[in-house]
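A quick aside before the break. I want you to see a complete sequence-to-structure record at least once, exactly as it would be stored in a machine-readable document. Don't worry about memorizing anything.
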Amino acid sequence: MSDKTSGSGSTCFALPGWSAVTLRGEQATAFAQAQFMGDLSDLAPGRWQWNGWLTPKGRLVALFALLALDGRDLALLLPDADPEAFVAALTRFRFRTRVEIAHEGGWSFAGRFSAPEAARGAAASGSVDGGGLELDFGGDGGPRTLRIAASPVPADEAQAARWRREDLAHGLPRLAPGQAEQWTPQQLSLERLRAFSVHKGCYPGQEIVARTHFLGQAKRGLVRLAGDQTLAVAPVAAVDAPGRALGQVVSVAGDQALAVMPLDAGDGPFHVQGVACTPLPLLDGLAR
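That is the input. The structure line, written in tokens, reads:
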């Protein structure tokens, strides 16, 4: 695969913050099905889904794109997580399961604002060592391609910043490692990405996730905010309404942010460290 598309001339640029962890072995899928919050039972080779790993108390350790490489091996594509720490933590639960868990440090991530050559929806195309692996990251905001290859591509800070803004616009929370184990899937509105299951068998945190779902106890979710200037704030900055603190910022990109807020927060006005913010609708189309 070329680093340029034939139609639009869009060029690949490096995507910082992404890493890959592989689960390989005859019991890799069974191990993932028992540990992760998404249902892998119908995930065919070459297809991917959003998924994640929870604590027993139902708090998100990491969110990732999970790709079935073939009939047995899996790749976890992690935005923002520390891959070595993730591998070490997950390995502690391997016990006697026949699965090898490894950080693929030689995989390089790139983005492109055009449609993939062959990947569509949840179907990936290509391979890392065979010219590049492509995933369709397009949604209502337009086409995007996530590309993974053995060779890095040049950095472009402006394009990478635009990519991050579009992640947030589609409701994909970009969580710094310090936010691990803080949020439930419902607080991050991960049902929009179909990232967790309330029907499959047991996994860490499953009881809390299912109870919240079936009893209708989710009171908070993601809200997309647009500031009237750049939001130079750290995650977990407070979102204020007149006279009260209303929520917390979880991701920032330029003048936009995702915040965990009450589902009935209304239309504002809101402020984040003095910056006036307006709620915007989340874009659809990134669920897989």
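Two observations worth writing down. The first helix runs from residue 28 to 35. The helical segments are 28-35, 83-91, 157-169, 206-214. We'll return to this after the break.
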